[in-house]
Amino acid sequence: MSQNGTPLIEVRNISKFFGSVIALSDVSMAVRAGEVMCLLGDNGAGKSTLIKTLSGVHRPDEGQYLVEGEEVHFNSPRDALDRGIATVYQDLAMIPLMSISRNFFLGSEPTRGGWGPFKRYDVKFSDRVAREEMLKMGIDVRDPAQPVGTLSGGERQCVAIARAVYFGAKVLILDEPTAALGVKQAGVVLRYVAQARARNLGVILITHNPHHAYAVGDRFTILKRGRTFGTFTKAELAREEMVRMMSGADELDALSHELAEFARTDSGAGQELGEAERHLAQALEESEEVFSHGLEE
Q: Percentages helix, strand, coil for the chain, rounded to the nearest 5?
């Protein structure tokens, strides 16, 4: 499917309520094949609620959810996965003490021989596939049997991404993949995101870091307090403006005025304190002179 074709997934004017709390209000966005859509927003903007809606955890209370142009109503994440929508969460859903290949096929283990309870886990097949899929993402794993906990944070993200692609993902939703990583490892993950785009997947990158988003994103949807400011391309939105929209220009201006007022107040208080210290020093000098004269007499 071309980038200009029907969106792989699209939401139109969806809203989600938890009692009296409005988590999402009239949100619209879409992602196409071979595209990285960045979903940005500060903490509490509604990013987690939106991705849980996209991945089938929540059902929207209002609006439409379309997959390849067809309206859908998911009842569980399994329904979304069956339609090719895979979500990689921050915790990666991995077991550190288990091998790379076992984590790769966790929940979908290949078997061989026998029937029913007598089937055995196919170690050779899982090791071979895990190594091949990791190699496609640019990582040459020497031993797929090594514990996944021995990998770096960026490499574990690669395992999760490669696993999703292998099991037929058309849309890859990445929840804050660089949040707990250093600069070098974050760069590694962003390279994997670009590789997934090159393989014609639709990628939704959730982040609150505008620098990471701007490095790989094609389009940007900005959320704030459950509402969207719209969707923009790089040509339409500079990085500085993106930061202002995420944090709120009014709030930044108000904060600047407040800090300036604090600085002015502190400066005035410092001057008053200095004047008081000078008066105190002068009073001490005068008392010392009186005391000295009393002793001489």
A: 45, 25, 30
Of the CA atoms within 13 Å of residue 13, those in its CB half-sphere come to 2
Dist. CA 159–CA 131, nearest whole Å: 10
Residue 30: per-residue pLDDT: 92
Looking at the DSSP bridge assignments, the partners of residue 87 are 173
- The residues near 99 (Cβ < 8 Å, ≥ 6 apart) are 144, 145, 146, 147, 148
Exposure string of 105-132, with b = 16+ CB inside 10 Å and e = fewer, is beeeeeeeeeeeeeeeebeeebbebbbe
C-alpha of 264 from chain center: 38
pLDDT score of 295: 46
- 3-class DSSP state for residue 60? coil
- Report pTM: 0.76
Q: Return the ∠ at Cα 205 (arms to 212 and 90), rounded to 5°.
A: 95
Q: What is the DSSP string of 257-280?
A: HHHHHHHHHHHHHHHHHHHHHHHH
Spatial distance between the Cα atoms of 72 and 64, rounded to a whole number of angstroms: 8
The arithmetic mean of pLDDT across residues 7-31, rounded, is 92
Q: Report helix, strand or coil for 32.
A: coil
Torsion 3-9-14-15 (CA) sign: negative
Which residue ranges make up each domain of the chain?
Answer: 9-247, 248-297
Encoding tokens for residue 174? 């990445």
- The 10s digit of each residue's pLDDT in 111-126 is 887 777 778 889 999 9
CATH architecture of the region 9-247? 3-Layer(aba) Sandwich (3.40)
- Return the amino acid letter for 231: T
